[in-house]
Amino acid sequence: MSLRGVHETVLAGRARPWALEELARPGLSAVRHPLGFVCLPLEREGGDGVCLHVWSDSLARAESTTSGIHCHSWDLVSHVLYGQVRNVHAVVSDAGADATHRVYEVVSGADGDRISPTRRTVRHTTGLVEVFGPGQTYTLAADRFHSSVVPEGGAAATIALGRGRPGGRDLSLGPLGGSPHHVARRSLDAAETALAIRMIIAHLT
Description:
With 205 residues, this protein is an alpha+beta fold. It has helices at 3-11, 15-23, 190-204, and strands at residues 31-32, 38-45, 48-55, 70-71, 74-82, 85-94, 101-109, 112-132, 137-140, 146-149, 156-164, 170-174, 181-183, 186-187. It has a single domain (3-204), classed as Jelly Rolls (Sandwich), CATH 2.60.120.10. The chain is built from three helices and 14 strands.
């Protein structure tokens, strides 16, 4: 199904049955995302993508080498299937001697993420904090710094729909003195992928 089709399904209130049907597909493969969740990619067409994002203490997490504050090169629509997700906006301003973070560019490929420091140094403060629960949908435009936060010990899952914007860049805030590096995306093995799928299904049925 296209991104537009999935979006229409979500807007029509059929997100849960759609997710359950997708989870029954054979051959699903999950990866640990450096932002702390497990990602189940479901659709990819050009610059469009649809994934399930899952947060759970029962699943081992990848560690970020920068921070959780980031911005996408694509517009996001996120629908919460279960749990609570906080969309925490960050107000980022350029800074010199009093900078606390450097902006890093993240270029993702089949072999993982290539992370490169830019010349831009910044400070940031917490802006709007939005809280979303089961059945709620929120949007976030490309190029907006934010972080997605699940309460400690909480479990949550979302349908994430992304539509790429030409010329956009994926960025993250990180340490001032960091160097270029590569981070591999680690796949879950078959047993842990099956565990993730079972957990989602248990929350949805």
